[in-house]
Amino acid sequence: MADETIQVEPLMREIEDRLRDDVRRRLLAQGGAPEYQDPDVFRAVDRLLRRAADRPASHALLPEFLGPESGWRLQTHLRFSSHRTVAGPLVLFIKRRVLLPLTRWLYEYSADNFRRQERVNRMLVACIEELAIENARLRRDLGRLDERVNMTR
């Protein structure tokens, strides 16, 4: 036993393949996409989603196309002001003493959902970017293939 060496990498790959296949079967049993019948298709989708989920958000290109972050990021701060000269201070007092605590409670109550939604949004953006990259690669390769075919004619 002491002389035997265990190759961890192939063992881990086999475990990952088994787990992926179990997930694939469960998805199919729950009405998942029929394309998942093909283990290679499922493996490719799994790889894409994992790469997107593991990618740090700072590398995503799509947010650059969305414009300034202030245009698409949730605003969680409140600013109270009033245009009223006489009743303004009273309105601001009510807003700060009643509405602000109520709004803060509502935000704290919803904060977990906001974080979950932001995570899903980031993953979807990363997936879109991965798909756009793959699409660009395929178009480039198809263009090169067309050029080769046209050269041989």
Outline the structure in words:
By secondary structure, the chain is an all-alpha fold. The chain has one domain (8-152). Helices cover 71% and strands 0% of the residues.
Question: What key attributes describe this structure?
Answer:
153 residues; 0% strand
Summarize the topology.
Elements: H1 8-29, H2 39-54, H3 62-66, H4 88-152
Helix pairs in contact: 2-4
The count of DSSP E runs of length 2 or more, i.e. the number of strands, is: 0
Encode the helix/strand succession as letters: HHHH
How can the largest sheet be summarized? none
Number of domains: 1
Shape: elongated
- Mean of residue pLDDT? 81
* Share of helical residues: over 70%
N/C terminus separation: 63 Å
> In what range is the share of β-strand residues?
under 5%
Radius of gyration: 26 Å
Summing up helix and strand content along with how strands pair, one would put the structural category as mainly alpha
Total of helices: 4
Low-confidence stretches: none
Quick overview:
With 153 residues, this protein is an all-alpha fold. It contains four helices and no strands.
